[in-house]
Amino acid sequence: MTKKGKMKFSDIILQGMQDTLYIWKREFRLTVRDQGVLIFFILVPLLYPIIYALIYNNEVVRDVPVAVVDNSHSFKSREFLRHVDGTPDVKIISYSSNMEEARGLMRNKDAYGIIYIPSSFSKDIARMEQTHVSIFCDMSGLLYYKAILSACTEVSLDMNNDIKIERAGNTTDRQDEITRYPIKYQYIPMFNPQNGFASFLIPAVLILILQQTLLLGIGLSAGTARERNQFKDLVPINKHYNGTLRIVMGKGLSYFMVYAIVSVYLLGVVPRIFSLNQIGLLQTLIMFIVPYLAACIFFAMTCSIFVRNRELCFLIFVFTSIPLLFISGISWPGAAIPPFWKAISYIFPSTFGINGFVRINNMGATLDEVRHESQVLWIQAGVYFITTCLVYRWQILNSRLHVLRKHREMKNKRLLDSREAVE
Amino acid sequence: MKAERKKKYISLYNVSKRECKNLVSRPIYLFCMVIAPLFCTFFFTTLMGSGLPTNLPIGAVDQDQTSVSRNLLRNLDAFQQIAITERFTDVAAARRSMQRGDIYGFFYIPHQTAKKAIAQKRPTISFYTNSSYLIAGSLLYRDMRTMSELTNGALARETLRAKGLTDDQIQSLLQPIVIDSHPINNPWLNYSVYLCNTLIPGVLMLLIFQITVYSIGVELKEKTSREWLRQGNNSMFISLWGKLLPHTIIFFIIGSFIDVYLYCYLKFPCESGLGPMIFATLFMILAAQSTGVVMIGTLPTLRLGLSFASLWGVVSFSISGFTYPVMAMDSWLQGIANLFPLRHYFLIYVDQALNGYPMIYSWNSYLALLIFIFLPFAVINRLKKAMLYYTYQP
Questions:
Q1: Whole-angstrom Cα distance, residue A266 to residue A357?
Q2: Which residues in chain A are closer than 8 Å to B25, comparing Cβ atoms?
Q3: pTM for this model (two decimals)
Q4: What are the tens digits of pLDDT across the range A379-388?
Q5: Is A282 in the B-facing interface, judged by CB distances under 8 Å?
Q6: Which of B261, B394, B174 is nearest to A225 (CA)?
Q7: Helix (H, G, I), strand (E, B) or coil at A364
Q8: Cα–Cα dist A61/A54, whole Å
Q9: Between 3.40.1710.10, 3.40.50.2300, 1.20.120.450, 3.30.70.2190, what CATH number should domain B56-174 receive?
Q10: Cα separation of A301 and A296, whole Å?
Q11: In chain B, which segments carry CATH 3.40.1710.10?
Q12: Using CB atoms and an 8 Å cut-off, which of residues 150-169 of chain B contact chain A?
């Protein structure tokens, strides 16, 4: 008896494997043939990163145009301005005679800032009094402000030191240096030495693209399956499609295969084309991306239940990319995200995917340092696998119910027909 | 003649009525036109509600362990945007903590710093930031650098006092030239002001693109396009007007609500007053709807039209230049940026609400939006042909 039972069990396993393979093959074929899904799985991952990289390719703002109002007209003020103009960040486009003229330049967007030097500038310095240089910045972009402020600060610090040395009346160069800075300090911007925009944003966008295109592609194919099905059901009536596990595994496997290739392109090739920071170890990256892809795929399969029509997935999923990028803590620091949104962010694989990938790719973190992220991703993969199974189970039951109901209706009709015929 | 005109109005009314029924019968419209924009408004303004991130966690590597170093770190911790949360014995441990994402930067004070400083041997202190997180990195840089300057000042002050100078003299000696910065109309450098004013209209615009394309494309897909045209007196123009007018009204209500919420409730800078911004919002909505019509007109398939709308809507955020300035992009991209209505809305916002310039200074942005509004005339015939002869392929 037991032997017979065991045989049966192994048969089930065998049949399950065969069905999984069948579904895997069928889904793969459907994916390749569906132009809409291909747009999301191939075209978007291929083109989007390139568009973004082209936009942010220059990394930093150079030569922000500023207007100058120099009321001092002195040797010292001209020295200050010459140095400011010499920095890479700022370019002086006009020497205006008064503030009104300079403001006019700003209104016409010829200048994005004004440097105002008071008439007492060089007198104050000669008299050993503090003097104030005012800068006015257009706040439409923080990068303008940052460029103008850092250029002026840099120059003022340099000039201050020279003035300090002049006044201190030291006798040796060494003493000059010490007066200048009793303690030297140095700034080391790690993992993105030029403070560039592309190096900061593109890695996050790449990871987000993986999740969003999966959501869209899987949503689209779910919508298609429903539209093709005569009862608007997700699961077709087919002898291979009669187990939750095999459907979920079969489908998941076929998506995974496509995305393994897409990931290689997105995470391996794109950063290389645009020579972005890429210091992660390959095996760490693989170990991290596998749970991310699994979490994304099952998350997308769970969400696809909401897609009743093919095209609805555009309307539901596309706009979420923007909030998801912000909630991940890459631009707005994670430490400053309010607890409520922090909790919400735990729903999405992208939050952990982005943080983990940025750390591995940009900062050379090892698997040990992204343990928290990879653990959460594994948990998410597990949870979403279960939810996917549940919703598919529900869908299978639904489609069986629909078939049975239809069958009963037909039967009743036939009965009625035959009765009528007899009468 | 008069009867003809009356007939046109009646058909316009009929198409609008038909569209209102559509809007009510499909929950996706409620989701995309009301729920999603309001959710994003609420989301972004609460996410960045503090304006500037406070208490960013940093580490301290204090190998000196003297009153000088402790004083420095205590003062650094007192900065509003910094919180020293961890202490390490060496740089490698601090770096690992940064790689784990626990801290955004750290301050390193090596052995015998105070001793060397007193002996005038010029020791070096260093600060490290994680610039992969650009905003956190640049905020930390500012405060850590200020702190380094202050420490130097404090030490130099002692030397100069010893030389017999008064405090006023010392102050002007240490910092003869001071830079006073005036960030015009956003003195707090509030990130919420800086980002939300364009992010939220951007989301609204993306949804308008999509809803416009969807509402027209779905007529093709469900083979109701001929009926739609018939109701519109067989005029594509009337049919479009009738269909999109209810959308315009709903979007305008939502858009005005967002303006009131941002400028009246949250008190974001609005130098021009609310009126010009609501006017700009109306222009933006009309321009976005017209762009939507152009999208489905050039690619009269629901799926391709929506792909086009999504691509354009999402790229808007990057190319409109409110985070990364357009002037820093390659010149051909600067030209392309003009093809995105969000770019022009952003420029109008900067002129009107942020800087409070007279409206005349934004004439070219308004003109650009106006061109967008008239663009559908270029595709109206193509669209009509599609409505009459096109068959949906999944």
A1: 12
A2: none
A3: 0.91
A4: 999 999 999 9
A5: no
A6: B394
A7: coil
A8: 14
A9: 3.40.1710.10
A10: 8
A11: 56-174
A12: 151-152, 155-156, 159, 169
Output B256-263 pairs: Cβ under 8 A, ≥24 positions apart. Answer: B256/B281, B257/B38, B258/B37, B258/B41, B258/B200, B258/B201, B258/B204, B261/B41, B261/B45, B262/B45, B262/B196, B262/B197, B262/B200, B263/B353
DSSP letter assigned to residue B362: G
The CATH topology of domain A64-180 is abc type-2 transporter like fold (3.40.1710)
Q: Which token pair is A87? A: 């920095």
> Which H helix or E strand runs over B127?
strand B124-130
Domain ranges in chain A? 2-56+197-412, 64-180
Q: How far apart are the two ends of chain B, measured CA to CA in Å?
A: 44
The token duo for B225 is 């396009």
- The two beta strands, B124-130 and B105-109, are antiparallel
Closest CA to A131 of A69, A72, A66, A78: A72
Contact B43 A323 (CB under 8 A): yes
Show the tokens assigned to A402: 């629909």
Tell me: the pLDDT tens digits for B125-156?
A: 999 999 888 888 888 888 888 888 888 877 77
**Integer CA distances (angstroms), A311 to A36, A255, B290, B390, B394, in order:** 9, 20, 21, 18, 10
A67 Ramachandran zone, left/alpha/beta (phi>0; psi -120 to 50):
beta
- Cβ contact, residue pair A178, B120, below 8 Å: yes
Minimal C-alpha gap between B122 and chain A (Å): 5
- pLDDT, tens digit (0-9, with 9 covering 90-100), for A193-248: 888 888 889 999 999 999 999 999 999 888 888 887 777 677 776 776 667 888 88
